[in-house]
Amino acid sequence: MNKTASIIPRSRHSEHAPAWRRELAAAVTRADELLALLGLPAEPAAEAAAGLFGLRVPRGFIARMRPGDRHDPLLLQVLPQAAEGAAAPSGYGPDPLDEAAAMVVPGLLHKYRGRVLLTLTGACGVHCRYCFRRHYPYAEANPGGSHWPATLDYIAANADITEVILSGGDPLSLGDTRLAALCTDLAAIPHLRRLRIHSRLPVVLPARITPGLLETLAGGRLGAVLVVHANHPNEIDTRVRQALRQTAAAGVPVLNQAVLLRGINDRADTLCALSEVLFEAGALPYYLHQLDRVQGAAHFEVPDAEAIALMTELRARLPGYLVPRLVREQADAPAKTPLPAEGALYS
Q1: Whose CB among 8, 138, 168, 344 lies 3.0–4.6 Å from 122's, allowing a Cys bridge?
Q2: What is the pTM assigned to this prediction?
Q3: CA 197/CA 215 separation, integer angstroms
């Protein structure tokens, strides 16, 4: 029996809805159901932690987890933990990157020279427990709707802005029609050159890579780049590989950002395997982020010394184009800061 088929129930939603919409609607939102699907006992502490930051995980992503393994690296990324409710250590807080200070229009962040970021939606296909925007005020900080004219006006008035980054939540939670309209509006601003989309959906919900989406990304005036987010090689299954290859074949470069996470990918063998499977799928490793110090995620942090030692081993084992850049994002820096700290900044 196909494992994915055994986990994904028949949707009650219209059969005319896109497949990715149906899969998203069927996502698991309770810790007890997630654990039961994997043959694991219920954990009251997990259900309680989900009250602090809701659980959401597509069933196709659950199908890649190892049944009966409480320490599966994919499960650990999404299962609420009691540690999330512990007092935040020094240096941790609800807005670790001080994004409120960079918000020039609701949902429009202008932090780095030459580019701006739009938090288009609070919706996401999966709720990663280390998410640095788990406390973000999406209701007030949305550049769409009534704020969209001011968003476009701000970008149009700043001729040094050449790139717009679509973020969230997950910008690909928006439908093809709405995304196409947003991209058309942005393309009408003459000094813009590039559109960068940061999304976890092609990994956790590969059906999101639709012909309509690829047409929007590949057919517009702006050069589009898709930055996906995979942390472990087990996330890249046949469907994900096909989706990423289709994107690259359409002429859209595909890059990957990962977060270094304690107990999940903090081994050189794991990171090497991730780079190899990404390359086979048509994606290049881009960044390996040190954890953004958001309240509720301290148990995932890997010390800098360990992270740097891992990168030394990766450079010894992989060709340079498969070695991601180890970086930390800091609220007061003009770009992402490489580790070790000496050397030029890059972003």
Answers
A1: 138
A2: 0.92
A3: 14
